[in-house]
């Protein structure tokens, strides 16, 4: 990371409190989020605890882990998150703004930590921080919003469109059904994008979002909402100018595919660490169950349904319940608290750099 990049990164640290202030929720929503979080954790414990047996049995299973595969899982998880950051960086470059690798990755890791650990409105706060952090680094509001939102949409589209093919390849659904779903989803996504990228559509969407945002406590204090129709026009006009080439779009989807592939490898490595063999069909089904739980956001980070779905898939694939439970705990520990902890370390590091300069 260059000196100028690190200075900008450090300068973003004090903005976290301001970002979190803009995503405050009413008390009833906070209570609902905490109840859902507690329910999710309760479901996970209910499903996993009996299979882990006694403390001594759990200790024996941990001692029997193949630590080389644990290392592979950890590296794959980190690289998956790095690939997601690279998706942001390439989108910013397509919009005419180039930021350093280290700068974008710092924002990416911190944004992920906020999304994964803030107890209420975590996903919103993570996006808000990412947009604010890019703006601090000189990226205009339209491009910041475009890159932050589009990165999430592209990764979601890749999973949704290719998911049926993966299930068909593993024999979980008929091959004809998998291709039929793909044939329907892929053109639908393309048509939706052609409609949404039209200047008139963007103009209408920007005004609609701004109008709704004025009534939402989550975003009503944000400058792009408080600025009214004039700000909405400026943002929509800026986004309308963003027209990546076919090669750039191919790069976006390629990076998203690499990110998902590395994440999938993380699950497989966790299973290999516990059993030495990988039931690929079961891993694919369990992985899609985890991602569906996270995307639906019924509970924070999909807690509960994600663990239950992955455990059920692995057991159905032939793993013993204790081995499957260890693999689930290992995977979720790496991709949730461990990566979140790494992001908070990055945040503390940037804050410390700023403090030493003042």
TrEMBL record:
Cross-referenced InterPro entries: L-PG_synthase/AglD (IPR022791)
Pfam families according to UniProt: LPG_synthase_TM
Membrane topology label: Multi-pass membrane protein
GO cellular component terms, semicolon-separated: plasma membrane
Segments crossing the lipid bilayer: 30-49, 69-87, 145-169, 175-196, 246-265, 334-352
Places the protein is found: Cell membrane
UniProt keyword annotations, A-Z: Cell membrane, Membrane, Transmembrane, Transmembrane helix
Official protein name in the record: Flippase-like domain-containing protein
């Amino acid at each position: 990371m260059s000196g100028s990049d690190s200075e900008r990164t450090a300068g973003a640290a004090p903005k976290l409190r301001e970002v979190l202030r803009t995503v405050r929720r009413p008390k009833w929503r906070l209570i609902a989020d905490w109840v859902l979080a507690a329910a999710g954790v309760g479901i996970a414990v209910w499903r996993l605890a009996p299979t882990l047996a006694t403390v001594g049995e759990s200790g024996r299973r941990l001692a029997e882990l193949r630590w080389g595969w644990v290392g592979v899982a950890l590296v794959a998880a980190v690289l998956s998150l790095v690939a997601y950051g690279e998706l942001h960086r390439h989108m910013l470059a397509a919009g005419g703004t180039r930021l350093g690798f280290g700068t974008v990755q710092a924002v990416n890791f911190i944004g992920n930590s906020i999304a994964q650990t803030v107890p209420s409105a975590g996903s919103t706060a993570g996006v808000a921080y990412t947009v604010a952090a890019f703006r601090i680094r000189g990226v205009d509001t339209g491009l910041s919003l475009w890159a932050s939102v589009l990165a999430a949409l592209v990764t979601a589209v890749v999973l949704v469109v290719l998911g049926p093919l993966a299930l068909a390849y593993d024999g979980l659904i008929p091959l004809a059904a998998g291709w039929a779903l793909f044939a329907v989803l892929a053109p639908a996504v393309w048509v939706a994008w052609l409609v949404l990228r039209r200047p008139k559509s963007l103009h209408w969407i920007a005004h609609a979002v701004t109008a709704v945002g004025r009534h939402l406590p989550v975003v009503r204090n944000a400058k792009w909402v408080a600025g009214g129709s004039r700000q909405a026009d400026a943002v929509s006009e800026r986004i309308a100018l963003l027209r990546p080439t076919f090669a750039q779009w191919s790069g976006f989807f390629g990076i998203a595919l690499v990110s998902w592939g590395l994440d999938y490898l993380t699950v497989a490595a966790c299973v290999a660490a516990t059993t030495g063999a990988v039931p690929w069909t079961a891993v694919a089904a369990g992985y899609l169950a985890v991602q569906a739980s996270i995307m639906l956001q019924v509970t924070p980070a999909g807690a509960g349904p994600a663990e239950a779905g992955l455990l059920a898939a692995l057991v159905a694939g032939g793993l013993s319940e204790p081995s499957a439970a260890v693999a689930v705990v290992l995977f979720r520990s790496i991709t949730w608290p461990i990566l979140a902890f790494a992001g908070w370390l990055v945040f503390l590091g940037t804050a410390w750099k700023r403090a030493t300069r003042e």
